[in-house]
Amino acid sequence: MNDASGGERIAKVIAHAGLCSRRDAERWIEAGRVAVNGRVLTSPAVTVSRADAITVDDKPLPTAPEVRMWRYHKPAGLVTTHRDPEQRPTVFQRLPAELGRVVSVGRLDLTSEGLLLLTNSGALARRLELPATGWTRRYRVRAYGMVDAKALAALERGVTVDGVRYGPILAQAEPQGERTSGLNTWLAVAIKEGKNRELRRVFEHIGLTVNRLIRIGYGPFQLGNLGPGQVDEIKGKVLREQLGAAGRDMVPRARAAGAARTVKGRG
To answer: Tens digits of per-residue pLDDT, 70-102?
Structure first.
């Protein structure tokens, strides 16, 4: 055990073992529920190595589970959080219990829908959310208002709205055959960053009101024909191939032949 450097923070190790979130692990430590090599901790400011014996409530820390990932079709009306102070229904309340504890790769806001990637590895989720990973998020956006082709094209250079700088946004109106009644138009949109409510704020800035937002792709993974509320595990071999050097080391080869299965979330 090391109180300064080397190894990994104890709360992170507990979270990786799948017991709880890192924040909850810190609370457990402060409550005296965690011990390292027989010494009860009172502060999370401790790093540990693989040689250290960690216990929680006098029970050995379980081995970290194999890394897994799922595609989930998030319906509108769910919050992407584990706890909501407003008591609104959450994504994680609707997932099949058999998934165990998972986290999302990025978020979709309350009224947005479509593809949400889920994983049991917080480290992998954080890595895939980084702009440096370079994964493109693709959406179909229905917006109300007069579409200005020049204004859409200008978004490719990025835009600043209310002091917030947003990166390049590729947006174009879908063919006229996809146009809905009145001034509602479907747009095909691609972004790299995915800041909070980015598309709604940017389109409002150019005179368009988003009234439906569906994510159809996140990096190499697509929504496809996954129905609302359905969850589909990504095969281990496919996951390793698509993660590339950015995360391939996190997925053991033993899962390469793992089978995927689509299940329905809880209504």
So the answer is: 999 999 999 999 888 999 999 999 999 999 889
Quote the CA–CA distance of 15 and 65 in Å, as a whole number: 11
Rg (CA), the chain: 21
CA angle at 228 for the pair 226 and 233, rounded to the nearest 5°: 45
What would the two tokens of residue 24 be? 């909850």
Over the stretch 186-243, which tens digit does the pLDDT of each residue have?
999 999 887 889 999 999 999 999 999 999 999 999 999 999 999 999 988 888 888 8
For the chain, the farthest-separated pair of C-alpha atoms sits apart, in whole angstroms, at 69
Secondary structure (3-state) at 204:
helix
Q: Is 244 left (phi over 0), alpha (psi -120 to 50) or beta?
A: left
Q: How far is CA 127 from CA 104, 120, 155, 195, in A?
A: 12, 13, 26, 16
> Which token pair is 107?
């978020």
Taking the CB of residue 75, how many other CB atoms lie within 10 A of it? 18
- pTM surpassing 0.85? no
- Please tell me the number of Cα atoms within 13 Å of 139 on its side-chain side: 27
Query: 129-160 pLDDT, tens per residue?
Result: 877 777 899 999 999 999 899 999 999 999 99
148 is catalytic: no
pLDDT at 6: 59
Q: Per the residue annotation, which of 58, 109, 232, 249 is the catalytic one?
A: 109
Length of the chain: 267
Neighbours of 34 (CB within 10 A): 25
